[in-house]
Design a protein that fits this description.
By secondary structure, this protein is α+β, with helices and mostly antiparallel strands. Helices cover 25% and strands 28% of the residues. It is built from eight helices and 13 strands. It has helices spanning 17-28, 49-54, 81-84, 93-102, 128-133, 200-208, 210-217, 226-234, and strands spanning 9-13, 32-36, 58-60, 62-66, 72-77, 88-90, 118-121, 140-152, 166-168, 174-180, 186-194, 241-247, 254-256. Strand 4 and strand 5 form a beta hairpin. The protein is globular and about 60 Å long.
Length: 258
């Protein structure tokens, strides 16, 4: 049923990044919203998101693309402090969620879902809301995974003038080198490659198999540029991770995570 006027109260199912972002936008439009999250976490005080996270995040402007010889082939500007007055920031998802939830802590909740005039499903790629009302719309595996870890920057062999963050694009696939922490003292590394789809049990077993993921990350090690080889050599087994790339049936939507 279409609404003739904007709703005065909106229920948002899912308290993740999408749900909290929507809640902030609605608040700016003077529309009351309540987010419902299955996982309960403590929150703090109100504040502005960018201002709250800027000083505890890594700030940057450009993502550099490299070929197999480590030569720059392209640069992509996320934003630009010179052009737009602010930089891009890299922050851990959990930290950002905590800050965004803090902005809603002082707001008065409306716990009765039936009192809301509109319901928005923002509960992830495997949305229960969408599954209930649009059961024919299902996410599809795109055929790619990212095998990743975190390495101390001091353990890298970084050439002079090598700009970070960077994505290496040799024939082996993409390899991400992305600083994290405000001082960039750690780098998130990830090898992206084609991978056959598994069932839920298979994905769960692979994600928990740290040694298996570490062995997969080390494949074709000698064919990568030296900076990547230094990252692979230092990659700790206990910090291995796995990301799957899912494709939504709606055009233009790609979701990272399994």
């Amino acid at each position: 049923m279409a609404l003739a006027d904007p709703p005065a109260k909106v229920a948002i199912i899912g308290g993740g990044l999408a749900g909290l972002t929507l809640a902030l936008v609605l608040h700016g439009l003077n529309i009351t919203s309540t987010f419902y999250e299955a996982r309960s976490e403590d929150v703090g005080q109100r504040g502005g998101v960018y201002e709250r996270v800027r000083d505890t995040s890594l700030q940057f402007d450009v993502l550099t693309f490299k070929d197999g010889q480590g030569q720059t082939t392209d640069e992509y500007y996320f934003v630009s402090e010179k052009l737009y007055g602010y930089q891009a920031i890299r922050i851990m998802r959990k930290e950002l969620l905590n800050e965004m939830k803090a902005m809603h802590a002082a707001r008065t909740p409306h716990p009765n879902l039936l009192q809301q005039q509109a319901v928005v499903g923002a509960d992830g790629i495997h949305s229960t809301v969408h599954g209930t009302f649009l059961s024919q719309v299902k996410p599809m595996y795109a055929g790619f995974v990212g095998i990743n870890s975190v390495v101390e920057k001091a353990q890298f062999r970084i050439p002079d003038g090598y700009k970070l963050p960077a994505t290496g694009m040799p024939k082996l696939g993409a390899f991400l080198l992305v600083p994290r922490k405000p001082d960039g003292s750690e780098l998130f590394i990830e090898s992206q490659r084609r991978f056959a789809e598994l069932d839920p049990a298979g994905w769960g077993a692979l994600r928990k198999g740290k040694h298996k993921l570490h062995d997969m990350l080390q494949e074709n090690k000698a064919d990568w540029p030296d900076i990547v080889q230094s990252a692979l050599k230092a990659a700790p087994v206990d910090r291995m991770g796995l990301l799957g790339i899912l494709r939504h049936p709606a055009p233009g939507i790609v979701v990272i995570g399994i």
